[in-house]
Amino acid sequence: MAVVDLKAVRAVLLDMDGTLVDSDAAVERSWAQWAREYEVDLRAVLAIAHGSPADRTVRRLRPDLGEPALSAAAARQLALEYDDLSDIVPAAGARELLQVLDRFGLPWAVVTSADRRLAKARLDAAGIAPPLLVTVEDVSAGKPDPEGYLQAARQLGVDPARCLVVEDAEPGLAAGRAAGAQVAALRGRAGDLSIDNLMQLAHLLARARATP
Predict the structure, then answer these.
(1) Which residues are catalytic?
(2) Which of 209, 208, 197 is nearest to 91 (CA)?
(3) Rounded CA separation 7/26 (Å)
(4) 66-91 b/e with 16+ CB inside 10 Å = b?
(5) Is the four-CA dihedral 62, 63, 67, 71 of positive or negative sign?
(6) What backbone phi and psi angles, to 5 degrees, belong to 200?
(7) Sheet arrangement for strand 133-134
(8) Angle between helices 198-210 and 94-103 (to 10 degrees)
């Protein structure tokens, strides 16, 4: 594992679902209902759905559908997610991390594969108001394409190489790497920095910024 110089970080770019917001139960419920309706094995759905835009996942799961049916299937999946905001809370350590970013004046953004309506609904449910939100509707290609992270870095006025991307899924980690950022990985995934939770990252950033 590479060593990350957290003192050199000038902005933090966070994924939403599973990273900044604990929405796992709601996400799984919506995909479980969709899988029943579209006759897809839920295990196959959950193996690829996390971290990817809904329409990309639907296309991979039901390539036999024509374009109008694919659009309808993706819209149905999003509708199920819009309707289920129960159990959504800040991820463990999220509040502490945001306090550290505020204390040291580090700009931050949320970059998500969700559309703006869903992202705002989940962030509102968790009580989190990001200064910058980049959704799948703001880019021409979602994760693992780096466009979202590059756009966030550009809007914050920070070189992507001085950004720390925080992710919990492979599509997002690939997007962060392709953007040229350093990546902090959750859920035991491989990154430049592997962390157990956002509380750990908060402590590491605070220690690094406080060191002369």
Answers:
(1) 15, 17
(2) 197
(3) 36
(4) eeeebeebbebbbebbeebeeebebb
(5) positive
(6) -60, -45
(7) 133-134, 108-111, 11-14, 163-167, 182-185, 193-194
(8) 20
Burial of 102 per CB tally in 10 Å (0-12, 13-18, 19+): exposed
- The CA distance from 130 to 39, in Å, is 37
- The string of pLDDT tens digits covering residues 116-163 is 999 999 999 999 999 999 999 999 999 999 999 999 999 999 999 999
Angle at 10 between CA 13 and CA 210, to 5 degrees: 115
Distance between CA atoms of residues 121 and 124, nearest Å? 5
pTM summary value:
0.87
Structure tokens that stand for 204 in this block: 């590491």
